[in-house]
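FAQ: What does a ligand-bound record look like?

Like this one, built around iron/sulfur cluster:
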Amino acid sequence: MLNIGGLTRCTTIDYPGELAAVIFCQGCPWRCGYCHNTHLMPQQSGTPIKWEEVIGFLESRRGLLDAVVFSGGEPTMQAGLHGAMLAVKKLGFKIGLHTAGVYPEVLEQSLPLAEWVGMDLKAPFEEYERITGIPGGEEAARKSAELVRRSGVPHQFRTTLDPYLQQNGRIEAMQQMVAAWGEELVLHRMSPMPVDIDRELPGEEECRANGIVERT
Ligand code: SF4
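The answer part, i.e. the structure of the complex:
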C-alpha cells in the first residue's frame, strides 16, 4: 500500500501533545539542501519495511499510542496514502500528516482524514526553486498552504532555519506572511546529523515519563 522508508515506534515530538508512531514514506521529488532524510528522497518500491508489518505493529499498540503521523519523504507523493490513512484510522488512532505541500490535489483528498497537519514552508514563495532545487514548487506550496489554512484541520506552519533563509530578511518576511494569516511560523533548527529513523526508541512508558516536549 505504501513504500515505507522508516518507522519511529514512539515519539512525543511529531504530533503536538500526543504520543505517536511515525511512518516515514519513501520518496520526495524535491532536493532541499538541508534535508536530513536524504535516504528518503529516492522513489523506490521494495523498501525493507512492509505495510503489513506496520499494521501489525500498530494493532499491538492500540490503547498505548494516541496517533500515527505520516511523514517522509513526501507522503502525498504516494498513491496509497489515502487508503493507508483510512486503515490506520480504523484502528482508532488519530492521524497526523507532515507535508511540504508538493502535491496539493493529494493533500486536498487527505485533509478530511487528518486530525493535525504540519506543513513545512521552505522559503518565501517566490524563492522555492532556490531552496527545493526543482521548478514548480512555488505554485504547489501556495495552493497547499491555502488548502491547509481553509481546511479547519488543526495545523502548524513551520520552517527549517537554513542559513540562506536567515539572510536578507527572508525568515522575517515568512513570519510576517504567516502572521498576516493570523498564525505563527514555528522555526526548527537544522539537524546537524542525519537522523537515524530506525534507531531503537524508548517504550511508551518512558516516552510518557519524559513528558510532552515541543520540537525546536
Ligand atoms: S521536501 Fe522535505 S523530504 Fe523533500 S527534500 Fe525537502 S526537506 Fe527533504
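Follow-up question: can I read anything off the structure? Yes, for example: Helices lie at 51-60, 81-90, 104-110, 128-132, 137-151, 170-180, 204-210.
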